[in-house]
């Protein structure tokens, strides 16, 4: 009986212990669950609501600030208020004329009035564009549109005209507007925090209050956007001036303003000319360019490390499609000189002040002569192969001749490097079926640009005798240096052929 009593007591104690454990465990789990909910709620509460007032809603598609998101100073607020009143007409015109007194004396009243009523568009608001915009605003231009998708960075401060440390991270267009309103509050700024390209050209270069642009400034460093802008302006008869490369330049005495056909010794200018020539535009666009040549000890664009190429297509390494993936060495003073030259040209053009720039490098008569010489050669080749050459035509135009001679072969013979008495000749003997006559009364040569090289008349005569009508090949006639140069030039032409 005592044994049974003792066993029952132990069972009761065991049950009590189990129940107590379950209760305690449940309490602990419940407490942890409550605490977890509280922590989750605290975390959720710490995440701000995205509303129309939140800065995150004003970021551009490139992740940049869409407006001036910095904290405005009292001076900025006063300047903005003054600018608003001034644009609404609450600003004494006599004060404006006093501020522009030196320009007024120089350009006279008529010239200054033209400048004050002008509408200018600046595409690209970096080192060149910011200095051009600042000079134009200080000189009296009262209507200006700024187009740039980029924001101010620390590295911008070595060359930007008006940006300060406080502007880092804000759009370049609004930085320029904010600073220049403090200088000329009556100026109307139309800021477009956008990337320029062919698809946006019509909207971005549209009139302002029914006034077409009096001038467009091309301060873009991306070749596709640059060519698209210049082509649009040319086709729509909008005056434009283009800034060529200021990177790796250091000599301001080598900077010139002239027609794009006359610009030399600058890779950006050469590439732009080539692309425009392929679009049928060979001259008529003023550019600011440098004739400074690279040299020992001078800055240059360093090649990408091999490991970057190993990653794949180097174009995929850039932040944006078709934008450079390397930092271009730039001396801060040179973009400023380029920008001031651009502004100076526009001021003189619009005001009607007398000035002269380097004229267009027109060599149409020379190109006609080269074209006639090439046709004569094709006719001789046709007769030598027993074909009728009467009425033979070439699939090559005068513009093609100019492109090959000036842009591909740099205006020099591939054999001697001489720049005079130049002609185009086939590099290799053509196949026998190089004449197409599938249409009655119409025969044409199948010669391509990639078949031709530049030589002097005398060199072409020897080349024709030995190679085109003889039994030798170029490898038999020329040394390795000439062969390599021809190969490089032909490969160069192939890279541009898809733009044709």
TrEMBL record:
Domain THIF-type NAD/FAD binding fold: 102-360
Location(s) in or outside the cell: Mitochondrion outer membrane
Membrane-spanning segments: 12-31, 118-137
InterPro entries: ThiF/MoeB/HesA (IPR045886), ThiF_NAD_FAD-bd (IPR000594), Ubiquitin-activating_enz (IPR035985)
SUPFAM superfamilies: Activating enzymes of the ubiquitin-like proteins
Gene Ontology molecular-function annotations: ATP binding; tRNA threonylcarbamoyladenosine dehydratase; ubiquitin-like modifier activating enzyme activity
Top-rank taxon: Eukaryota
Protein name: THIF-type NAD/FAD binding fold domain-containing protein
Gene3D superfamilies: NAD(P)-binding Rossmann-like Domain
Chief site of localization: mitochondrion
Keyword field: ATP-binding, Ligase, Membrane, Mitochondrion, Mitochondrion outer membrane, Nucleotide-binding, Transmembrane, Transmembrane helix
Entry-linked CDD domains: YgdL_like (cd00755)
């Amino acid at each position: 009986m005592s044994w049974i009593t003792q066993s029952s007591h132990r069972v009761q104690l065991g049950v009590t212990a189990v129940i107590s454990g379950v209760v305690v465990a449940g309490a602990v789990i419940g407490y942890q669950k409550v605490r977890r909910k509280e922590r989750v709620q605290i975390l959720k509460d710490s995440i701000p609501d995205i509303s129309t007032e939140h800065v995150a809603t004003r970021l551009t598609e490139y992740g940049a600030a869409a407006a001036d998101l910095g904290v405005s100073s009292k001076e900025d607020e006063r300047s903005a208020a003054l600018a608003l009143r001034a644009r609404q007409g609450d600003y004494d015109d006599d004060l404006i004329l006093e501020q522009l007194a030196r320009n007024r004396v120089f350009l006279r009243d008529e010239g200054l009035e033209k400048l004050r009523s002008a509408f200018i568009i600046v595409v690209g608001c970096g080192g060149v564009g910011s200095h051009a915009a600042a000079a134009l605003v200080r000189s009296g231009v009262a209507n200006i549109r700024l187009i740039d998708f980029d924001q101010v960075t620390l590295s911008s401060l070595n060359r930007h005209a008006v940006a300060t440390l406080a502007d880092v991270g804000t759009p370049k267009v609004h930085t320029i507007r904010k600073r220049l309103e403090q200088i000329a509050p009556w100026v109307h700024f139309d800021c477009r925090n956008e990337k320029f390209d062919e698809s946006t050209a019509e909207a971005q270069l549209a009139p302002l209050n029914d006034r077409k642009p009096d001038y467009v400034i091309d301060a873009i460093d991306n070749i596709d956007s640059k060519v698209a802008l210049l082509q649009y302006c040319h086709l729509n008869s909008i005056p434009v001036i283009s800034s060529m490369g200021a990177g790796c330049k250091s000599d301001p005495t080598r900077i010139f303003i002239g027609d794009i056909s006359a610009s030399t010794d600058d890779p950006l200018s050469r590439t732009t000319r080539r692309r425009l020539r392929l679009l049928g535009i060979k001259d008529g666009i003023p550019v600011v360019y440098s004739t400074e040549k690279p040299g020992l000890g001078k800055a240059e664009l360093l090649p990408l490390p091999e490991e970057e190429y190993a990653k794949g297509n180097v174009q995929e390494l850039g932040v944006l499609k078709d934008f450079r993936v390397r930092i271009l060495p730039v001396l801060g003073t040179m973009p400023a000189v380029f920008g001031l030259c651009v502004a100076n040209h526009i001021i003189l053009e619009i005001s009607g002040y007398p000035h002269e720039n380097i004229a267009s490098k027109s060599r149409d008569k020379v190109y006609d002569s080269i074209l006639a010489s090439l046709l004569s050669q094709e006719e001789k080749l046709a007769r030598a192969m027993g074909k009728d050459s009467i009425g033979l035509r070439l699939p090559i135009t005068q513009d093609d001749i100019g492109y090959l001679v000036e842009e591909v072969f740099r205006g020099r013979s591939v054999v001697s490097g001489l720049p005079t008495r130049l002609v185009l000749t086939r590099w290799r003997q053509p196949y026998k079926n190089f004449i197409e006559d599938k249409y009655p009364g119409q025969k044409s040569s199948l010669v391509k640009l990639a078949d031709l090289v530049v030589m002097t008349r005398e060199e072409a005569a020897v080349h024709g005798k030995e190679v085109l009508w003889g039994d030798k090949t170029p490898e038999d006639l020329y040394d390795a240096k000439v062969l390599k140069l021809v190969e490089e030039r032909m490969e160069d032409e192939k890279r541009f052929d898809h733009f044709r």
